[in-house]
Amino acid sequence: MSAWSGSALSAPGVHSLWTESAPGGTADAAAHGAASGAAHEAAHAVARMTLAAARPVERIPTPKIEYAQLAPVLIVLGAAVIAVLLEAFVPRRFRHYAQLFLTVVALAAAFAAVVGLAAGGHATTRAGIAAMGAVAVDGPALFLQGTILLASLVAVFTFAERRLDPADHGHRVDSFAAEAAAVPGSEQEKAAVRAGFTTTEVFPLALFAVAGMLVFPAANDLLTLFIALEVFSLPLYLLCAVARRKRLMSQEAAVKYFLLGAFSSAFLLFGIALLYGYAGSVSYGRIADVVDGSAAPVDPALASTMGNDALLLIGFALVLMGLLFKVGAVPFHMWTPDVYQGAPTPVTGFMAAATKVAAFGALLRLLYVVLPGLRWDWRPVMWGVAIVTMLAGAVVAITQTDIKRLLAYSSIAHAGFILAGVVAATPSGVSSVLFYLAAYSFVTIGAFAVVTLVRDAGGEATHLAKWAGLGRRSPLVAAVFGVFLLAFAGIPLTSGFTGKFAVFKAAAEGGAGVLVVVGVISSAIAAFFYIRVIVLMFFSEPQADGPTVAVPSPLTMTTIGVGVAVTLVLGLAPQYFLDLAGQAGVFVR
Amino acid sequence: MENLIALLVAAPLLGAAVLLCGGRRLDAAGHWLGTLLAAASFVVAAVLFFGMLGRGAEDRALHQTLYTWVPVESFRADLAFQLDQLSMTFVLLITGVGTLIHVYSIGYMEHDERRRRFFGYLNLFLAAMLLLVLADNYLLLYFGWEGVGLASYLLIGFWQHKPSAATAAKKAFLVNRVGDIGLSIAIMLMFTTFGTFAFGPVLATADKASEGTLTAIGLMLLLAACGKSAQVPLQSWLGDAMEGPTPVSALIHAATMVTAGVYLITRSGAIFDAAPTAQTAVVTVGAVTLLFGAIVGCAKDDIKKALAGSTMSQIGYMVLAAGLGPIGYAFAIMHLVTHGFFKAGLFLGAGSVMHGMNDEVDMRKYGGLRAYMPVTFVTFGLGYLAIIGFPGLSGFWSKDKIIEAAFAKGGTEGWILGAVTLLGAGITAYYMTRVMIMTFFGEKRWQPAPDPHRAPDVEPAAADDGRHLAAGPVGSPAAEGPAGHPAGELPDPHESPRSMTVPMIVLAFGSVFAGGLFSINSAFVHWLEPVTRFEHGHPPVSAAVITTATLVVLLAGAGLAYAQYGRRPVPVTAPRGSLLTRAARRDLLQDDFNHVVLVRGGEHLTRSLVYVDHTLVDGVVNGTAASVGGLSGRLRKLQNGYARSYAVSMFGGTAVLIAATLLMRAV
Question: Which of A18 and A152 is assigned the larger pLDDT?
């Protein structure tokens, strides 16, 4: 509940910004045409009524929406709305199947739409800006959307897994609370469990989150960026809170995530305001023009602030901070271990993979489209962030004793590695990051899916000591997890090696040799704790009261199988995918 | 036609894959499959051979490129084959003798429950060996080189439950590694010098490189050849390698793999021709090994070890011939082929004797077997006559030519080499006559099979592991004697089954006739000439004198052996013997030398390195690890679980971010 109130809180922020920006934007539109009018067009949908009241009707250019190019987002959003209706009208016992079916079909259809757009040349020759300048449809956007959709698809399979826990009162249960609103331990909760309730709302929530993630890396103006951020963040806050086991921990994680997320959103929003003050527009293209001096500030209302470098630099730093928070870069990473540990493990996998893809996509676009002229200003700062992220992630992971926290710190270190590719500031930097994200997301989802299998009486047995000797009890599961760990560590013949090699190569070519050195050192530190888990699984005596490994349904098996397959294929024969990422590496402006 | 070349390698490779991966369900048919695929490879080889005969001498070489592995700039590692006259000779020898030994093994390994695996390894060996001789570049040759090393390791240690076999396998592997390092360094030198590994360009432009480089390459190639062909100083593994099943000794450690060094030197002839120092090293190694092996062969009572000494010595002949340059290459290969026939035949004969004698290997416990094993006696006898160079038989033709070529080297060097080869021929006659007499003639000196219950302090498996079984087929280490013979009874020598005698008979034909056939109109020399080139050597004395001298030393050697072993009873326990005999029994102290110089020296070196590692390296590493761990523990405390402190960290981070950005602009 509290998460929704957060959205209500942030709504006035949007509103007030828009009302301030509206006059400038409109004057701008008169002078420069549609490109500069992107800001209020993006806001159009949000606050139409206010706009209509503030401006004469004939001054509004007719919005032109390229529905076909936005099809992936529209499909997922439409399905999310339908899913809410299903929640309202479908009888409880059919809901699980109806929701799962709808979600899978929607994600698959959206993926097909992405493939169709790419096949139609929208990733390369016909790349362009859609929806009045709000959304870019280009190679990176489509590649990342495809990655997010595929990752979400396999992640949703783990959402739907109902064979891991024994049946409760004759009802099969999944990882989510019977009734999320019930106070943990209350009579209401017990009644819900007895009645066999399940939180099937997770499916529409996931769909909304996916829709936001699809827009996030494609957002071509700052307002769309912000809205997409909120659209995918709010469902994630909720999803974190609905674990069936260890509910208090789950709720604590959600509250922390929400509070810190709102905090970072505020920074981001403030940065957007400053950037608007600097450029007189929230459009990426327009800001870039002002940065490189090709567009002179003309708006008399903003004459005193436009072109003021302090606004640009501070605003840029604040926006950057908002995105770095989402990717989990140090020092904005502190939510990661707590949230990863507390959230239901399927949600953790989904979030760790898809959020990272979306956030890095947005970060790339911001840095490459908006700030190419500022390259030497942002690069040293990003170098610093990448270095501390790689080192801190790897170093702190060493002393972790919980597998989910371990993977959380591992994800922080990986964020650092990806940042090394981001700062390369070359086309090969973009494509290496794209490849890394695709490779990493499947390893992550697979690894967290394996974590859901290892259970004892209290649910998942996430303490590392319990994993001792797992290789003797369940050689297959341990071997699969071993593959994922080797991929995390970047051992050759896994996707992790290919990805790491690509980003380090790009970084070295981009002149960031120091980052490569630090990256390799961090990898060596990180290899220690990955290999330590393998040693623990295969070379330690199993504990007497050790966990059992649940036999999952084909759903989780598919998730893990896809994870292993992608990990090995991208490790053994990566060339096709490297080429694909290479072709998709050019941003449209 | 050239598309068939890959099939040569593919057939046994398929066999190895199927047999080794197929599991127990192939146990019943595995040996047939292995033999069939070896035979298929031989048939392909025959087809290619006749196709080659149908073409003119200059068009005989065939090439087949399958694909290029990692082409990086000028680095091209091609999976490409070259089949010329030299390769063809080897292919026929390998597949022909290989097939015969597969057939022999069907009978020999009948009681071994791991027979399928044995045939898998044999097929693997064939594939690797064919790859070695068919490669058209040194890198692929290296691959085959390592492949035969692996197969040899697996087969020497095939009865790995015997500690002696496991140790022997390890020893062979380690000694071979030393040689392999030579080959890899040679290949690296080639790449830096010529920019390629392919035989064609390297050998065609060899004389363009500086002599120093070529000498280095040549010496490294020689080191490789010493390892694989058991030449001094890397000879020590071959005697112990006899722990492997006898067919393995025949195929790998007599007929084919150990001759790979001769192939390597002959193939790289252009390099050695331009590097006289390396060539001198080659003949020196050959001459020393020739005598070394022969002397060791004289002292051994273990029939297989005596034959192993002989193998070493005969390969010494080949290496020596190959070191003589174009006057010797063709004869080296010719001796290699005839040796392949008669030495394989001798080993199979030895295996047959052991098969009939409770797997006894000590010749002092044989005697008078000719009446009990007539086929083995006749085929072994023909092999014996061939190896000592009895006029008209294979060994005579090939060895005589090598002795002539040694004299033809000219100068003092020629006289020394000629004398050494002559002396070697005499010793060969001596030790082979000794083997022959001790095994097949004289009174019976048979001993009861060892009784495992007699030594209660030794566990049964260990008793079975004793040296008496050093190389016999062992089913399971059961309480009864090996191969089902009850302990404590006298052996009951019998002729071996048909599957074993037929290969022996075929090889005996080769031992008798091959040399003569090759020498009609110097057919073999002309066949190889386009590849190895050939110059007529001119010995300082006429060929007739040399041949006569050879026959004289032969008779002297055989006569001496007859006087010692034929006219006097052979004691069952070996007499103490002279100092030389005792040294030769210990392989001329090779292991003692290696132990004192290499093992002790190595131990001192490693101990001091370990000390440095423990104190210095570990100090740094552990210190780093401890400090990283400590840092981790401290940083971990920052993660205190309070959202408020997380928010502070974010706020501080943002402030730093802004400050840094502004600072960058200011700078």
Answer: A152
How big is the A-B interface in CB pairs under 8 Å? 90
Q: Which amino acid is at B251?
A: L
Q: A290 with A379: CB under 8 angstroms?
A: no
- Is B639 in Cβ contact with A334 (below 8 Å)? yes
Name the DSSP letter for residue A459: E
Q: Mutate which of B654, B662, B663, B664 to disrupt the A interface (most A C-beta within 10 Å)?
A: B654
* Contact check, Cβ <8 Å, A399/B632: yes
Residue B25's alpha-carbon distances to A70, B11, B32, B114, B478, in angstroms, are 59, 20, 14, 12, 24
Is A431 part of a structural domain of the chain? Answer: yes
pLDDT (tens digit per residue) in B365-422: 888 898 899 999 999 999 999 999 999 899 999 999 999 999 998 888 899 999 999 9
Helices B394-408 & B498-519, crossing angle to 10 degrees? Answer: 40
If we measure between CA atoms, which residue out of B383, B388, B387 comes closest to residue B505? B383
First to last CA, chain A: 39
A-interface mutation test, from B622, B632, B635, B662, most A Cβ less than 10 A away:
B632
Q: Would you tell me how many other CB atoms lie within 10 Å of the CB of residue B73? A: 6
* Distance from C-alpha of B469 to C-alpha of B461, rounded to nearest angstrom: 12
Which chain A residue has the Cα nearest residue B649?
A331
Let me know the angle formed at the C-alpha of A331 by A330 and A332, rounded to the nearest 5 degrees.
90
Please write the tens of the pLDDT for every residue from B512-555: 999 989 988 888 888 888 888 888 888 888 889 999 999 999 99
Contact list in A for residue B631 (CB cut-off 8 A) is 395
Q: What is the DSSP string of B492-535?
A: ---PPPHHHHHHHHHHHHHHHHHHHHHHGGGHHHHHHHHHH---
Work out how many domains chain A is built from and give that number. Answer: 2
The boundaries of the domain holding residue A235 are: 71-583
Asked if residue A589 belongs to a domain, the reply is: no
Q: What are phi and psi of B79, to 5 degrees?
A: -90, 85
Same-domain status, A203 and A307: yes
pLDDT of residue B66: 85
Contact A381 B635 (CB under 8 A): no
Which chain B residues are Cβ-neighbours of A261 within 8 angstroms?
Answer: none
Residues of chain A contacting residue B656, judged by C-beta atoms under 8 Å apart: 331
Q: Do A321 and B632 touch (CB under 8 A)?
A: no
Q: Please check whether residues A37 and A139 belong to one and the same domain.
A: no
For residues A39 and A83, membership in a common domain is answered with: no
DSSP assignment string, B376-398: HHHHHHHHHHHHHT-TTSHHHHH
Decide if A378 is inside a domain.
yes
Q: Is A61 contained in some domain?
A: no
pLDDT at A29 exceeding the cut of 50: no
A chain contacts of residue B649, beta-carbon cutoff 8 Å: 331-332, 334
A214 and A101 together in one domain:
yes
